[in-house]
Amino acid sequence: xxxxxxxEGVIVVGHIGLMxxxxxxxxxxxxxxxxxxxxxxxxxxxxxxxEAGAGLLVLEGITAPIAQKITQTIKIPTIGIGSGKDxxxxxxxxxxxxxxxxxxxxxxxxxxxxxxxxxxxAIKQYADDVKKGNFPNELESYY
Length: 143
Fold this sequence. Notes:
It is built from six helices and four strands. By secondary structure, it is an alpha/beta fold. It has a four-stranded parallel beta sheet, covered by helices on one side.
């Protein structure tokens, strides 16, 4: 499929490792590349996607050593999601980075803001202003 698409001029982004869309089939969020068999398969998949014409490759939820090996082996850029620092680029989902969720936090997430608290406080303040009749005021109304 990748070869067919790229032959038609479509830029394809490959994706290997943990696939969130398949976590139920996979029995949960499981890191890939923990054993030699998985590492071999990940490297083979990366090489196959590159050979088929993928323009770049997302490495998600794989161990840092195999992510580094893949990055050093293939010529196309790698983008890591929880796959260590040696990928060519990094993705951190903005809602994770800004701290909007606390019920599930993967190991690779670093929070740069306590967004959940800020949003909750803003919503409470808004509700209080509406209940007290402070919002909307004359500046926020049309006459």
